[in-house]
Every structure is written in structure tokens, then in C-alpha cells.
Specification:
11 strands; 6-stranded antiparallel β-sheet; OB fold (Dihydrolipoamide Acetyltransferase, E2P); about 25% helix
């Protein structure tokens, strides 16, 4: 992870966010790999909410064109089951096939081996780390109620 990450406190848990990435409101990080190629994975915030991912499936393939917010797969953990959506529009250039057989890297190395896919896209469409933390501040109260089963409170 890059030096001096930003930190968002989720109760007593410190979720860290590397400054060398950008972030989507759907809690994915994006890291510029080469000109126009961005690698995506789940942020520490998402991984903490999910806890212990045990199933991961992507329904995308190299060369496929995605639209923003298009459903691309699903993820299951001891806490939740959720669909995954493309954070931005772009063309798929790589899929981390090893996660399809064993998704534990999402839990253990979310900013490294836990990457999910790469897109040819514009990284600047994503939030800066500081903008993402502001987004988390505004969403945290709702997330806490959801975690506690009080979504309608």
C-alpha cells in the first residue's frame, strides 16, 4: 500500500485508503496501470462491511464493453450477498481469474492480489481519495443502521 493512506473510522475499525488510487461511489477502487487502463477492486470500506468473502463471480470477459452501473457479477460473504456493478463505462482488458476459484485475496490483500478486473477507461471519472472519504462520511450513518438491522429507523 502507498505511504500515508487516508483513514476512515468505521466504529473502532480503521479502514485505510491508498492515495495512489481513485474511488467509485459503489466502493470500488481504481488504480491507473498504464495509459487508459485502470485496475479495480473493492475498497477497505466494502470489505469490512462484507466480512469474510467466500463466493465471487464475474459475468464479464476480456474485450467486453461495459456501461456505467451495468451488473457485472455477484459476491457473497458471511454478512451479505450482493450484485456487483461496473463503476464506470469501459472495455474489459483483464479479469482476475484466480479470484473466481478462491476469493480469499479480497479479504487478505484487497489493494493487491484481491483486484477483480481491469478496464480501458478514464480514471478521472472516479473520486479522489479525499472526495471518497467525504462520500463515506455522508453514507456512514445509513450504513450503521443497515448493519444493525434498522434500515427503516
Amino acid at each position: 500500500m502507498s505511504a500515508d493512506p487516508l483513514v476512515f473510522m468505521m466504529g473502532q475499525y480503521a479502514a485505510e485508503f491508498p492515495r495512489d488510487r481513485r474511488y467509485a461511489k459503489n466502493h470500488m477502487w481504481g488504480q491507473q496501470r498504464t495509459a487508459g487502463i485502470v485496475r479495480f477492486g473493492l475498497s477497505a470500506y466494502a470489505v469490512r462491511l462484507l466480512q469474510d468473502v467466500y463466493f465471487f463471480d464475474l459475468q464479464i470477459a476480456e474485450g467486453m464493453q461495459l456501461s456505467s452501473k451495468q451488473e457485472i457479477g455477484s459476491i457473497e460473504s458471511k454478512k451479505a450477498e450482493s450484485s456487483l456493478y461496473a463503476p464506470v463505462a469501459g472495455r474489459v482488458t483483464a479479469v482476475n481469474e484466480s479470484l473466481l476459484d478462491d476469493p480469499t485475496a479480497i479479504n487478505l490483500d484487497k489493494y493487491g492480489a484481491g483486484w477483480m478486473f481491469e478496464l480501458e477507461c478514464v480514471a478521472e471519472q472516479l473520486l479522489s481519495p479525499e472526495e471518497y472519504l467525504k462520500h463515506l462520511d455522508s453514507a456512514w450513518e445509513v450504513a450503521q443502521r443497515t448493519i444493525k438491522g434498522q434500515a427503516n429507523a
